[in-house]
Amino acid sequence: MSEDFNSETPVIKNTDVTDLATVVQQENTSFDDLELSKELLQGVSDLGFKYCTPIQAAILPYSLRGQDAIGKAQTGTGKTAAFLITIFDDLLRHPIREERFLGEPRALVIAPTRELVMQIESDAAGLARHTGIKVVSLIGGADYQKQLNQIGKTLVDLVVATPGRLIDFITRKDLFLDRVEILVLDEADRMLDLGFIPQVKRIIRSTPRKDFRQTLLFSATFNRDILNLANQWTVEPVTIDVKPEDVATRSVDQKVYLVSSEERYRLLSNLVKSPDVISVIVFANRRDQVRRLFERLKNNGFSCGMLSGELSQSKRTSTLKKFKEGRIKILVATDVAGRGIHVDGVTHVVNYNLPEDPEDYVHRIGRTGRAGATGTSISFASEDDAFLLPDLEKLLGEKISCSHPPSDLLN
């Protein structure tokens, strides 16, 4: 590891859970200070970004030099821009002079859900608008031939994909990963939870050896399984840890209402009628709960949509588009579907059920309070899930205020 790296940024060669350091915000770390290629810096500027988020300020000085990195960070911390900036700057600074072939991307991002892949592709399009870099997304549930046409008609620089659809392309020999220079694994913990790791391992075996590529891995949690995988796939990575409580409490007013199971729906229906509730995402733990809640809201005349894995990709895309455009006020979602929801202007998040995994709580409330705005999260806790609160408080490092809802919300 080069000795001229800034020693104030935490660097850990042996990635052990007990050794993880915490990154503190570096005040006024400007993108101008990173000496990015001018075309990329123009894209950053066009998006209104001037100063780095904590994870960007910590990781970019290393990743821009080609070093492997492991980042512990939730959605909403700026990690997507961190790895996209790394990819684009490297591709621009090291153009390939020799002949290239179709279906051979130079960079690959693997993400667990369709919505997240689509969001990454959207972010990539904005950052790369002045670069000439070609980005393609590959997701299951969408037309294979249309995706194949994107790859088969022009040289592709970056592919963003879900594991299953990527395996399809590799198996059919429509995509070759032996020229991949940068590999990004986003939300590795979620890929582990969803059982994608065998597929991911197969995909990685199709890329160059780890000492012949740069690898960036991001995860909301650093459990033993994640660290073992990181050690298999990276070489002397810098390890960055952004505390979840910084993300959760910075711009979101958190409330927990103690209610009975029978009072949940009445409380929700009165809440969403409040004049300050302009755009709201309601999270439930299971697909069947999401479906029943959506149908009940719809039957009661509310403008709502639902996002869950049981819907076709076209339906999920259409619903999310309507929500972003304000044609739908209420979006009912599962955690998996909700991971890819990056919508500015969401005023409220409601946890109809407390999540069983405390990390999902941070992901959920991160859907509001985005882009400099403030937001409100309201969680319902009753006799069947209030026992989950101590684990949430332990993760956040603070007590969560619990109260009974105002009486007018239960009328």
Question: How would you portray this structure in words?
Answer:
- This protein has 411 residues and is of the alpha/beta class.
- It folds into 2 domains: 17-242, 3-Layer(aba) Sandwich (Rossmann fold); 246-410, Rossmann fold, CATH 3.40.50.300.
- Helices cover 37% and strands 15% of the residues.
- The chain has 16 helices and 14 strands.
- Helix 3 packs across helix 4.
- It starts with 37 loop residues before the first helix and ends in an 8-residue tail after the last strand.
- The model is unreliable at 1-27 (pLDDT under 50).
Radius of gyration: 21 Å
End-to-end Cα distance, whole Å, is 63 Å
The name CATH uses for the topology of the largest domain is Rossmann fold
Strand content: 15-25%
Shape: globular
Q: What summary fits the major beta sheet?
A: 7 strands, parallel
CATH top level label of the largest domain: Alpha Beta
- Looking at CATH, the homologous superfamily of the largest domain is P-loop containing nucleotide triphosphate hydrolases
